[in-house]
Design goal:
Length: 125
């Protein structure tokens, strides 16, 4: 199943959070919002429409009812640190501080939803 398969059959106003994930549970947010918003603002999502869905959750979360989708990264077996050429940037990432790194672990994503969401979460497409 691909991201396009899900978005193509979803309801117009269904909310999603779409992440690219790797074998190290490093999940990068590439889009969130309603289905039509993501398709209208497709710059981030377009390159991933044919990516394989690794996991998705239809659990209705308390904060926004979004379906969380994890897409398999093209470099699935590589850590994100090795994919970035700026080693000064990656050296500042802290496993215990989510604000210092561009990814979240799955437990952080699902705990955020169960606890009612983050107020300062930016909307990305």
């Amino acid at each position: 199943m691909t991201l396009w398969d899900i978005l193509n059959t979803a309801q117009y106003f269904q909310k999603f959070e779409v992440y690219v994930t790797n074998a190290y549970d490093q999940n990068v947010l590439i889009g969130n919002g309603e289905r039509q918003e993501m398709l209208d603002n497709w710059e981030e999502v377009f390159d991933h429409l044919m990516d394989t869905v690794e996991y998705f959750s239809t659990e209705k979360f308390s904060d926004n009812g979004a379906i969380v989708i994890m897409l398999r990264d093209k470099h699935y077996e590589e850590r994100l640190e090795t994919q970035f050429s700026d080693k000064d940037y990656t050296s500042k990432w802290s496993p215990s501080d989510p604000k210092s790194r561009p990814f979240k672990y799955a437990v952080e994503i699902f705990n955020k939803h169960r606890e009612g969401g983050e107020k300062d979460e930016e909307k990305r497409y």
